[in-house]
Amino acid sequence: MSIVQTPPPIKTLADLIQRLGGIPLDRIRFHPAPGTATERDVVEVERREERLCELVDGVLVEKTMGYRESVLAMSIGRMLGNFVAPRKLGLVSGEAGMSRIFPGLIRIPDVAFVSWGRVPGGVLPRDPIPDLVPDLAVEVLSRGNTEPEMERKRSEYFSAGVRLVWMVDPEARTVAVYKGPDQVQTLTESEVLDGGDVLPGFRLAVRDIFAG
Fold first, then answer.
1. I want to staple 109 with a disulfide (CB 3.0 to 4.6 A). Which of 56, 60, 137, 148 is the partner?
2. First vs last C-alpha separation in the chain
3. Residues 39-74: pLDDT tens digits?
């Protein structure tokens, strides 16, 4: 497992925005002040405002997802769950499934699969932000996402031990399959998505993800 290097200090607002991948300003929470946010703040914002935030470099970054993206994520999660549950392979979480992938770094994949071998004690966690690194992370791209943001997220996923990442693009109607930060195959609607070494036997026609 590789280690995420400590980035240079943030001196200006421009530095902060660049560090976060050039995301829109309205996704960066100002309270608590950037650089001072903690996991407790993540939980409190979700409880008080029903808003999901990732914790990145001490900054609360609001998760961006519209209705269409939510429907697609739910569809993928349902299909994964229908494969995983009867085989007792692990857990499938949805768009509110927070994961502490490194100390102080909270990510929320739109869909994630974690095998039982990665679940401490083989028991469903009760902590709202468990120490769980998924085997598979699925991100459904929204208009508020940027390529540098997603590139950073992919790098963090694989550094933490994620084995497979799917990037679902509703506009292009494609799925980019990453087996490493820069090892990618982009599938179109005429092709079939499979679970690879993570979920052997799982197959899903890309067109079925976008059906309707």
1. 137
2. 40
3. 999 999 999 999 999 999 999 999 988 899 999 999
Nearest to 136 by CA among 163, 157, 158: 163
Query: What is the rounded distance in angstroms from the CA atom of residue 65 to the CA atom of residue 184?
Result: 23
Whole-angstrom distance, CA of residue 114 vs CA of residue 146: 26
Residue corresponding to tokens 């008080």 = 48
pLDDT of residue 5: 53
The fold adopted by the segment(s) 67-209 is tt1808, chain A (3.90.1570)
Parts of the chain belonging to CATH 3.90.1570.10: 67-209
CA 185 to chain centre: 18
Burial of 41 (0-12, 13-18, 19+ CB in 10 A): middle
User: What are 44-53's contacts with CB under 8 Å, separation 24+?
Assistant: 46/96, 46/128, 52/95, 52/96, 52/98, 52/108, 53/29
Spell out the SS3 assignment of the chain.
CCCCCCCCCCCCHHHHHHHCCCCCHHHECCCCCCCCCCHHHHHHHHHHHCCCEEEECCEEEECCCCHHHHHHHHHHHHHHHHHHHHHCCEEEECCCCCEEEECCEEECCCEEEEEHHHCHHHCCCCCCCCCCCCCEEEEECCCCCCHHHHHHHHHHHHHHCCCEEEEEECCCCEEEEEEECCEEEEECCCCEEEECCCEEEEEEEHHHHCCC
